[in-house]
Amino acid sequence: MRMVDLITKKRDRGELTNEELTWMIEQYTAGSIPDYQMSAFLMAVYFNGMTDAERNHFAFAMLHSGDVLDLSDIPGIKVDKHSTGGVGDKISIPLAPLVACLGVPVPMISGRGLGHTGGTLDKLESIPGFNVNESEAQFKKQVRTIHEAIVSASREVAPADRRIYAVRDVTGTVESIPLIAGSIMSKKLASGTNALVFDVKVGNGAFMKTIKDARALAKALVSISQTAGVKSVALLTDMNQPLGITIGNSLEIAESIAVLKNRGPRDVHALTVALAAQMLVLGGKAPSLEIASGLAEDALRDGRALTAFKQLIQAQGGDPAVVDDPRKLPQAKYRIPVTADQSGVVDQIDTNTLGLAAMQLGGGRAKKDDVLNLAVGLVLHKKLGTPVSKGDTLVMLHADTKDVADIVGLVQKAYHIGPSAPKKSPLIHEIIRP
Ligand code: URA
Fold first, then answer.
1. Known EC number(s) (predicted)?
2. Cα–Cα distance between 276 and 279 in angstroms, integer?
């Protein structure tokens, strides 16, 4: 086979066979196909798309370019959750212990933040001592014994995706639904999970800005899962404002602890319970979403989920004392208010910009190897639909320097204050099943 023939086939809207896709990914991973040819192929996919069969096989070929964990010797239906990324999205942190304490094993392989979105691993690392780099044996032992582990992918997971993503990043080919779906699934299926719940974010703080695009991505994720024999469901959830009231690593851990103490913000609580219910049904622990939601609410109310979070921290070398005293988490030196410059009602929030503001404070990465300040971030005092008077605090910046005038300006511009409340968006827009 020759790569040029596969490129021209895709350029001319042909359909690549499984053998061709497998060959391409194998040769590219081995270094026998140069990046310029892969770039041309990716651009052809960007314009001409992929058939469902191509997209699914592309995902599997990338999955098998690296290690795939085998968790079949761990009893129970293993269920993981994947979010396509948002601002203030800390849901994995209360969710894993909540589902684990109800008997469903949760083998979570998570990521780090880049750009305006945060990453679960960075947030967990704000807990003193917390180790996200476990060996495969440790990871499996933990999933078997306490039903939960949240770790970083090893270098060996889907190396083809790592290289292809780097090429997409610099060739304008990231925003392609088959390429995004293949990329996500090549990593997600590598954890050896039996079932997956997808949280596909939609709105001005998400990758997918429209319901139409989010639905297409959700359908692709569910279809690839089905072909892989993994049960799944996808929720399209709102990202037209940050989730909860915190953006920033240790701030989001403190908020997650509040959720586990059953006193977190209503949206984070509701989404955690909704995703937990889906996971409990897929994991065979409840016959209906209604019963599953009741089980999850009970475990939040009686402290079982909180205890499971302490167990997770302890198992991964962290200091569980942060749960009883969140002031033990890294704290920023200064609190700097951003105030409203007029009276009215918050009718729009540019979520992406708030994520970028947290990044500029030092809480996120502009480049992959940036070192984070885990203490800094934003605490939102006002969310969509809240009335404000001129001079009210909209957001409290947690900063390690007072030199933040630009960031104050950025946050102030991200808030739009109008005469009346906006139309209320549902937290969950749609549920997509196979
Ligand atoms: N997340 C991924 O893992 N890959 C993409 O292509 C986009 C988001």
1. 2.4.2.2
2. 5
